[in-house]
Amino acid sequence: MSISRVAELLSSTRDALKRRVGNVFEIVAVLFFIGFSIAILLQVFARYVVHYPIQWTEEFSRLLYVGMVCLGAAVAVDYHSRLTIGLDFIKKRSLPAYRVLTVIIDVVTLIVLYYILLGSYSRTMRGWTNALPATGLRWSYFYIPFIVGSAMLFVYTALKLSATIFRLAEGKEVRK
Question: What's the pTM?
Answer without folding.
Answer: 0.73
